[in-house]
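Researcher: I'd like a structural prediction for the single chain below. Treat it as a standalone chain; there are no partners to consider.
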Amino acid sequence: MSSREPRVLQLGFMPLIDSAPLIAAARLGLDRKQGLRFQLQRQASWAAIRDKLLSGELDAVHALSGLVHGVQFGIGGLQADMAVLLTLNHNGQSITVSSALAREIRAGKSLANAFASLPRRPVFAQTFPTGTHAMWLSYWLASHGVQPLSDIQNIVMPPPRMADALAAGELDGYCSGEPWGLQSEALGTGQRIIRSGEIWADHPEKVLACRRDFAELEPETTIALTAALLAACRWLDDPAHRREAVNWLADADVIGLPAERIEQCLLPAEPSELAAPPLRFHANGAVNMPYLSDGLWFASQFHRWGLLTPDVTEQRCEDTIAGVHRIEQYRQAAAHVGVEIPANDRRVSTLCDGMTWTGRDAIAYAESFPLRAPSLRA
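Model: Treating it as a single chain, here is the predicted structure.
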């Protein structure tokens, strides 16, 4: 940055453990090292983050990966050109169910039989219609033969409300980021039945996102912003640093839960105690690359569940995601702060149902699933 005065940026975040890179960057002065000054603004919902980003009230945001791609495709609302600057974390989410339902499932009942024991069609909440939590919930249900489009009532709810709604009997389960799954266990009203890393090991989760015009009109600022968050992600992979960040996240203006609850989510357990891949912020840069294949996976699931219009072809998926993921700006930012850059901008993954995602041919992949939107039936 050439100006002596730091460029002030308004950054939005949700009260979640994986907002930690934004909080750490501001607390450690990593923004000012890049000639920036972050003003962090906690938001009430993912819809608020989307709307304030699109209106220009926020310059960049901590966002659900799928939210950004949903806006780009114009699903369920205004279409706008978006930019993903880097991935902030892998893993760290969970599906939580009521204690009664957890007992049924852990007794060996199939999901369908466990749901049949309920007095109503099960009600599950997720955080945004095209967001990561909606996709993890749908993928998990479908892997157990449950049709997420009809066998459950699927509603949207901000994560801080979910534990209370489960305790009140309004929900039978929900998918959210931590610490809100742990909160139900602390209240004694629910149990985390599966971690998101068990659905897809080292899955993409939150990203740093902005409007495309911001990334194109202010490239130096965009690279500096990306570099500051990359440095924060690297800092957070040290357990001693995470311990330092616990109280920052527990603050009433960030998450507002007891520090011990934050610590349970943020500090990695011993490897022998892990049931799923842990929350990762950096892993020598392997986390932060905005892989094209990650964006294409969300496009595949949008198609699988009937959210894309019929004119979205394989080539259009490729072109759309290539425009969203700012690979070249990421590489410049990574080089600036000495972060290793993965050799490939795609990766291969196998998910919990044994289906392998090769990172290509999103439409064909979506149509290979036996359980999908009825409109996609052959």
